Amino acid sequence: MILSHLSPQQAGRHAEFRAFADRSLVPQADRFDHEQSMSREVVADLVGQGYLGALIPKEFGGLGMDWIEYGLLTEELGRGCQSIRNFVAVDDMVAHSIHKWGTEEQKQQWLPRITSGRTLAAFALTEPEVGSDAAAVETTATADGTDIVLRGTKKWISFAQIADLFLVFAKFEGQHTAFLVERDTPGLTVEALDGLLGLRGSMLGRITFDDCRIPAADLVGRPGLGLTFVASSALDLGRYSTAWGSVGLAQACLEASTEYAGRRAQYGTEIRNHQLVQQMLADMLTDTITARLLCHHAGVSKERGEVEAVNHTLLAKYRASTVAVKAAADAVQIHGAQGIGAEASVQRHYRDAKVMEIIEGTSQIQQTMLGQFAVRAVRL
């Protein structure tokens, strides 16, 4: 695993996270993928371990976990099941937003419910015509007395099918603004989106707001802070989770590939003795360790509150997601015909890995931002 840089406490927590993933996620991951859903039992398991809202302070029901431990948690969740890692990530993105930008009343009302699993949360930013260009959101919010009226559509929203609470981004008086919207609000409807390439257990949905009326008190932060502050900080958390989760996916591919190469014999010997297979295993190992160290560097940067912590997370997310895609492709190749069967976990990893290059900012967006960072870094 190459985790010698961890403190004894961090190493102990990592062992705990790995055991949880092996016990509660690995045996069910293929089923969640096939059924395109997840069970409430796994949510209860996460709650029982305190893994929902783990970054939130203990006063609101969280664990007050540091960034390194949280990264180790998301790596193991990602090794076990990317859809579950995604569930924890979006739940945490909403909890983080409420804790950082919400009113005291919003914190008291929602954070204990989210950390206890009584309220499942979803992050509603993407729209049918709006992806990477988040500034172009078309959903509108209009003041009407003491209420706000929402109109518009969100799409590709993870766990929209089961979420109880949505953090919704809309233009309010021309300014990007965030709102909390409960599922049973009149005018809100959810349509399931099935048949996705990967993260099939993430229960994506399309949300329609048809004169959806909410109290003005459900505004998060102030008008105009929705994109630059609320969404940006939440997406940074999401990228951090995606980066570590990609490392977990690559690790799963490495473990599956070494195990299979050790028992599959061709031409009179196990294929682990074939040089071209050894080359793929060597690259998989090296790339996974490299991506893990980049993620650890990003976590240390966050813990220290460094100015460039956001860019260090970008670095980790960009490299780790590309590593996951290559590792998954090689894992399928090593497994041969066995790797493309419906029962093979590596084909699920392959499909999930591609999604990691798209969510929380595409690889091309990451390259653009990191190219600008490179110019500044060299100058400094």
Automatic annotation (TrEMBL):
It holds the Pfam family Acyl-CoA_dh_N. Keywords: FAD, Flavoprotein, Oxidoreductase. Residues 15-117 form the Acyl-CoA dehydrogenase/oxidase N-terminal domain. SUPFAM superfamilies: Acyl-CoA dehydrogenase C-terminal domain-like, Acyl-CoA dehydrogenase NM domain-like. It comes from the Bacteria. Its cofactor is FAD. InterPro entries: Acyl-CoA_Oxase/DH_mid-dom (IPR006091), Acyl-CoA_Oxase/DH_mid-dom_sf (IPR046373), AcylCo_DH-like_C (IPR036250), AcylCo_DH/oxidase_C (IPR009075), AcylCoA_DH/ox_N (IPR013786), AcylCoA_DH/ox_N_sf (IPR037069), AcylCoA_DH/oxidase_NM_dom_sf (IPR009100). Residues 230-372 form the Acyl-CoA dehydrogenase/oxidase C-terminal domain. Residues 122-212 form the Acyl-CoA oxidase/dehydrogenase middle domain. PANTHER family: ACYL-COA DEHYDROGENASE (PTHR43884), ISOVALERYL-COA DEHYDROGENASE, MITOCHONDRIAL-RELATED (PTHR43884:SF12). Belongs to the acyl-CoA dehydrogenase family. This is Acyl-CoA dehydrogenase family protein. It comes from Streptomyces tamarix.
